[in-house]
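wait is this the right file?? whatever heres the structure
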């Protein structure tokens, strides 16, 4: 039986060399490192059939004598550790690459990518080290169960609103705009009152999101729902109610199931994309619809003097609530800017992390 040289593929990291020897069903392997030279000898099925295969590699820089190797039915994997953590310009001491040696593109990384991989590995180890020192929360299962049920209830509520409004729109057309409040308001009241929990949860540390973005959204919606729509009968028959409710529910039917699945450590890629993307057009449109509702309510508050503050006769008869609404419009668009920037940063972080994991 003649001795041949097998095909060898290589890749590196800062601390290791990876070799893949193309020999299947390898046996009688003898792999050693002596004086910085790797000696390989073994029998198996290679490029030219069943033969003995042998090769030597003199490394560019010192390596540790201990090596690891694993033989499978298709190949032999060898791992050699470098003496120093550094990046090599090439594998062998001789400048001319051996004809049997080629890059292993399945494992190949350039130096910057390898540094990023090393940094992420160190961060994972550091994170695991910290987590191992932190006592486990005995109430974690209870907290997740509570959050799952909350998101489930909200998903069912907003789904009912969305489906009901969609069906009525197809059946009644534009006529459905004018009685939206009387048909939908009870469920919307329930969902938005329950949404106050979303301000309490981060304040108690049950979720990692900030308190202020949740406060801006929940309190802003409740102001429009209870003060603008709920307290003025003249507003309840206006088409703007339909657009406000429809845009709110269109966002939430994707947000709440995303959080539900997160409670059970599950992810659907399509749902994740929708949760972090669909708000980009719908959230500004929702704020615009709310602003239209506020503007339409100003003349009504002026005429009815509802919620106006009575002043002493020397200062005038009353201070109209419309001034509060005009100030609220300014706060509404400042809140839109604040929340849009916050949500966009969340989206970028989410997809940047997913891209790193995929690579």
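ok assuming it is, sequence goes like this
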């Amino acid at each position: 039986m003649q001795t041949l040289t097998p095909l060898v593929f290589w890749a590196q990291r800062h601390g290791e060399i990876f070799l893949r020897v193309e020999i299947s069903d390898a046996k009688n392997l003898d792999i050693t490192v002596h004086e910085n030279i790797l000696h390989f000898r073994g029998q198996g099925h290679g490029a030219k059939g069943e033969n003995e295969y042998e090769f030597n590699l003199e490394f560019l820089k010192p390596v540790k004598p201990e090596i690891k190797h694993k033989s499978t039915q298709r190949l032999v994997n060898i791992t050699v550790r470098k003496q120093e953590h550094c990046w090599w310009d090439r594998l062998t001491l001789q400048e001319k690459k051996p004809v049997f040696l080629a890059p292993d593109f399945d494992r190949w990384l350039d130096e910057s990518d390898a540094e990023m991989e090393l940094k992420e590995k160190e961060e994972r180890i550091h994170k695991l080290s910290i987590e191992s020192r932190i006592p486990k929360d005995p109430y974690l299962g209870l907290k997740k169960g509570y959050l799952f049920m909350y998101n489930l209830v909200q998903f069912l509520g907003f789904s009912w609103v969305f489906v009901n409004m969609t069906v009525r729109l197809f059946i009644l057309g534009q006529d459905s705009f004018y009685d939206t409040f009387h048909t939908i308001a009870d469920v919307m009241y329930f969902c938005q009152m329950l949404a106050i929990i979303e301000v309490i949860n981060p304040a108690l540390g049950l979720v990692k999101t900030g308190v202020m973005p949740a406060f801006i959204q929940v309190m802003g919606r409740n102001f429009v729902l209870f003060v603008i729509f709920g307290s003025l009968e003249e507003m309840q028959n206006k088409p703007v109610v339909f657009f406000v409710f429809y845009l709110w529910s269109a966002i939430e039917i994707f947000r709440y199931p995303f959080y539900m699945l997160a409670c059970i450590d599950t992810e659907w890629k399509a749902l994740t994309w929708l949760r972090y993307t669909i708000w980009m057009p719908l959230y500004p449109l929702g704020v615009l619809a709310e602003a239209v509702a506020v503007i339409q309510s100003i003349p009504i508050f002026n005429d009815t003097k509802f919620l106006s503050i009575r002043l002493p006769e020397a200062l005038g008869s009353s201070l109209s609530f419309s001034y509060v609404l005009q100030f609220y419009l300014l706060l509404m668009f400042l809140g839109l800017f604040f929340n849009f920037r916050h949500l966009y940063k969340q989206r970028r972080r989410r997809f940047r992390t997913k891209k790193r994991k995929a690579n």
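The chain has nine helices and eleven strands. so i think its the right one actually
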